[in-house]
Amino acid sequence: MLLSALSAVAFVSCAGTEVGNPANPEPTEVQASIEFAPHVPKGTNGALTLDSGVIINEVWMVFDRFSLNESCEVENPTEAMPVVVELIGGAELPAPVELVEPPGNFCTLKMDMRALEVAELPVGAPAELADLSVLVRGRTAEGDAFEITLEDMDTIELRAHQAGGFALGKGRQQLLIAVLVDDWFAHLNFEGTEVNSETGVIEIDGQEDSELLREFSSELRLSFELVPDENGDGFPSRGEVAKAFASSR
Q1: DSSP summary character for residue 184
Q2: What is the b/e burial string over 148-185, where b = at least 16 CB atoms within 10 angstroms of the residue's CB?
């Protein structure tokens, strides 16, 4: 599961009768766990094969904080705690994400991204992720290895599709975020990019192919959808994506 703890709530109860002092009181707040998943199923090779022919082997994303907001204009204050998401392998490091809020209707889910220093990287994250907010590795449709790195992504904001927002009741809620990875490469043209003679990899970063990097960054920012997990399998089907109740578009 792709989860990481930003805040948690503990319910402590003393021993007593079920009537006067119930051992397991009903929750009074929303306890929302966040899970990320690509909308493309992982193949037997452990990678994602996209409609464009691009193969993605790794996707690492670094988030600094999450906030559920009833207002579309005001953000709830939250404690910063870096979270590293490995999209394909289903890992969230160092621990699962859980947001605790009063129940109600929410207009936005905001996710701040930022680069981590080497000392901040959690166990399990690659050393190459230092000073980056996004790291993607794969192969082009022609079979060339590529690596895309982004240093700064700022904030991803998912806004409710309905004017009244999306409702979250008290108790545990699973929020499934579909990441539309096909969109990242639908119009990205690798033609003319140079392969690093030392590494044998096409390197798209702030120094090389900066125009491609801007295109990729723009598509990535718009590719997050908050969807219902109707069958509880943790995978966003096309039907579930079509029913998204908030998105970053």
Answers
A1: H
A2: bbbeebebbbbbbeeeebbebeeeebebbbbbbbbbbb
Is the pLDDT confidence value at 14 over 50? no
Residue for token digits 């998943």? 37
pLDDT tens-digit readout, 49-71:
999 999 999 999 999 999 999 98
User: What are residue 182's phi and psi, to 5 degrees?
Assistant: -55, -35
Which tokens is 129 given? 């992720």
Strand partners, 137: 58, 147
Alpha carbons 125 and 103: distance in angstroms, whole number: 34
Residue 11 has pLDDT above 60, yes or no: no
Q: Indicate the burial class of 203 (C-beta count within 10 angstroms; 0-12, 13-18, 19 or more).
A: middle
CB 244 within 8 A of CB 217: no
pLDDT of residue 3: 39
